[in-house]
Amino acid sequence: MNDSAALIQENHALIVAAGQGQRSGLELPKQYATVKGQAMVYHSTARLLHHPKIAKLWIVIGAGQEQQLDQALAALTGYEVVIGGATRQESVRNGLSAIAAAGGAKNILIHDAARPFLSSKMISSLVSALGAESAAIPVLPAIDTMINASDGRAGDTVDRNMLWRVQTPQAFDFEKLVQAHSQWIGSNDATDDAQIFRAAGHEVVIVDGDEALNKYTTASDFAEQSEENMTQIRTGMGFDVHQLAAGEELWLGGLKIDHDKGLAGHSDADVLLHALTDALLGAVGAGDIGDHFPPSDPKWRGASSDKFVEFAASVIRDKGGCINNVDMTVICEAPKIKPHREAMRQNVAKMLNISLDRVSVKATTTERLGFTGRGEGIAAQAVATISMESV
Questions:
Q1: Residues 75 and 355: beta-carbon distance below 8 Å
Q2: Residues 377 and 252: beta-carbon distance below 8 Å
Q3: pTM over 0.85
């Protein structure tokens, strides 16, 4: 299969973040307003970027919003930016056109930035539905009494069993959605892409929606959250030790360092990354590195420890958490850590997909006391701080 043929088999996602959010009453477009400690657009961007079934992410923004997006997503990389149009429908078309120009996709998920709290489970559910269908949307039942109303007066009751609240992301066969947009002849701007898809004669299946995906629209949506829904700040701690031995490679912080001895262990024995992995897992009560990567399992022999760190970070994201910062200390007499510290920080920032100023690496000695002082081994400790919505 050639490169273009391989590309078209992928699932892409498109976040629509081009609006001005005038109904929100905010001074800036609502997608850049802070919600749960991050810009609104950050939340769904991070979730889609890190989902294993999404191959590429595109974000449609308004003209002149490039700097706002850069600031909102400073800790994230790997997405493409498209300039939107005057309406949501035009913005989606611009995004679809950009994807088509880049080689296309097999499937596309269209998501509104105003629905920030997108779960990995929802993404997986929609992608799975596309295995047998050409479109799928998440919906929630109407639970209140529903009526018609006119001129400020209540009218007849409407059967709520026939009414459903539609959410995003909405998932589609890419080529069919592009064609549906090109055929749309409605006099008004479509409120969602499922409307356009159905107008082209295609079926749309429904999957269970998620109350957490409620849309932020008015000023009251941005009001301070109740105490029950406040963001939790959690901290995890990690500590690890490995023996120094002749004939072994020395890996610290994802960096190979020249030294007369290396660290002995089942994996690459990167003591700093092992401590960090335990700190991350501890912040969400997910056990320790040995629970997930037991030394008795031969498949982890010689494994690069960045895999352990990236796994722990994915556990936090899957639970709805966000890594705020990590602070690590290497304890040894030799080698000298300072010449390698910045490279280690950069490695860890890349593993966690966070900005460099959220990563600290320090070093100390034990004044030649104990096993580290005698040069028999290296120890490391780590602290990770995360934000997580209360449950």
A1: yes
A2: no
A3: no
